[in-house]
Amino acid sequence: MPAAFSDLKPALADLSLSKRFVLVHASPTIDANSLLESLLATTCGFITPTFTPKTLLPFDYHPATSSADAALSAEIFSSSAPTDEALGAFPELVRQHVKAKRSAHPVFSFAGLDADFALNTQTLFDVYAPIAALAQEEGVVLLVGLDQRVNFSVHYGEKLAGRTQFVRWARAESGIVECPNFPGDSEGFNAVALSLRPFTRQAEVGGVIIQAIPLKDLLRTVVNKIHEDAYSLLCARPDCERCEAVRWG
After folding, report:
1. Domain containing residue 215
2. How many helices (H) and strands (E) in the chain?
3. How many domains does the chain have?
4. Is residue 76 part of a domain?
5. What does the angle CA 128 – CA 156 – CA 174 come to, to the nearest 5 degrees?
């Protein structure tokens, strides 16, 4: 059963978020309304991913070499485009909130409340700008019932460490647009969990683990880990084109 509001609010309060801006990744099993009300009561403001991967063109697409028909498989991004259903009900609830703002990246948009300063920084070139803005304000990543594999901020740490980024193409209302600094695969990200433990505050509600990780500590830890081992955080699947590209690129 989803955790109730009466349980979530004190749990979040125990994580000392009252003076912090928060980036929230929430499990689809969490009651979305309860989480929203709890965050409004316990944080300065927050953002959450409202990603739209269906706007992406095929991995090998390039406008110079691909046919026009290749673009028809992708949906067109707009500010009203629904969040990918795999992310659960919470991001879509936030996106539809009357006071919510949403960034405009066609694949990796964020929506939030009382955190416009972060949302307004994102561009096609700088997909990670909202994370950088939150980090400057001593922001926190909140993982609600999820592990590091969904922690998008780890991708920003990879970029800061100099790891290979990619270029993809997506459909926007203005047409097909280039999306540089596209992240790699995240299946290997749980390898950083132990190193983050000293900085992580944790609460449990109804069997659901909630982790609060300061962004500055997270980013520093990821950068150090990759500098110590260039292959750290990559997945082990031989068929993963992105991780193989990092290894051999």
Report:
1. 5-53+81-161+186-248
2. 9, 9
3. 1
4. no
5. 30
